[in-house]
Amino acid sequence: MIYLVIFFILELMVITNNSFITNFDSSIQTILQGMVSSGFTSIFKTVTFLGSPLMDLIYLLLIAFLFLKNNYKQTALWIIYLLISGNIISFLIKITVHRQRPLNAILPASGYSFPSGHVFGTTLLILTIIFLVLPHLHNKNWRIGISVIAILWLILVAFSRVYLRGHFPSDVLGSALLAGTWWEFSELLYLRYHATIINLFKFHLGNQKE
Questions:
Q1: Chain mean pLDDT for the chain
Q2: What are phi and psi of 184, to 5 degrees?
Q3: Is the pLDDT of residue 91 over 80?
Q4: Which residues contact 31 (CB under 8 A, 6 or more apart)?
Q5: Distance between CA 125 and CA 138 in Å, rounded?
Q6: Which of residues 123 and 200 earns the better pLDDT score?
Q7: Do residues 55 and 165 touch, judged by C-beta distance below 8 A?
Q8: Are 190 and 197 in contact (CB under 8 A)?
Q9: How many CA atoms lie within 13 A of 131 on its CB side?
Q10: Is the pTM of the predicted complex or chain greater than 0.85?
Q11: Cβ(114)–Cβ(93) under 8 Å?
Q12: Which of 182, 181, 123, 120 is nearest to 151 (CA)?
């Protein structure tokens, strides 16, 4: 609920062109403008490609496949549901808010600006890795190390989108909040209907045996 409330407040401020948000965005963009160089641009173009919605889709489907292969069918289906439903929600918000992208983009991008598809997809990916994949690792140091790397990757992807002027800073902040909200909602939904899902699996498997 905290994520959701903060996200809606931020969305409302974006829609109304609130002065606090516009000043927040412009101040950070001004700072990053002084950092622009060919070296940084090459690095962040690579980062933004590896953190693109298409790549996040591939990563998450690969994780779902590995869970399915290891007989974690419910987890695999939940990841697919999270991915599909989350992207639908993100798209609907984009076309509703209708926010134009920043001017003078270093790497031009199509579509609307709020929220960032890159950061939304990457946040879902990182949450999936931390809460679903890493618990299967027995080595605590590995879990901590991978968690730190995953969070740093999310920060790097978010930074690349603002640096390349594909998004405003408030776009990437809103995306992370939206992804966190959708993750928590999907988790609660799964736990609420867990027994129903189990029964559906048993019914389906029973029919296959017959």
A1: 85
A2: -65, -40
A3: yes
A4: none
A5: 21
A6: 123
A7: no
A8: yes
A9: 13
A10: no
A11: yes
A12: 123
**Side chain identity, residue 77:** L
The structure tokens listed for 122 are 């990457």
SS (H, E, C) the chain: CHHHHHHHHHHHHHHCCCHHHHHHHHHHHHHHHCCCCHHHHHHHHHHHHHCCHHHHHHHHHHHHHHHHHCCCHHHHHHHHHHHHHHHHHHHHHHHHHCCCCCCCCCCCCCCCCCCCHHHHHHHHHHHHHHHHHHHHCCCHHHHHHHHHHHHHHHHHHHHHHHHCCCCCHHHHHHHHHHHHHHHHHHHHHHHHCHHHHHHHHHHHHHHHHC
Q: What is the pLDDT of residues 2-14, one digit of tens each?
A: 888 888 888 898 8
Token representation of residue 14: 């974006």
Quick one: tokens of 155?
């920060």
The answer to whether residues 24 and 170 touch, using CB atoms and an 8 Å cutoff, is yes
Q: Which amino acid is at 57?
A: L
Query: CA 101, CA 171: separation in Å to the nearest integer?
Result: 10
* Per-residue burial over 11-24, b = 16 or more CB atoms within 10 Å of its CB, e = otherwise: bebbeeeeeebeeb
| Residues shown for the chain | 210
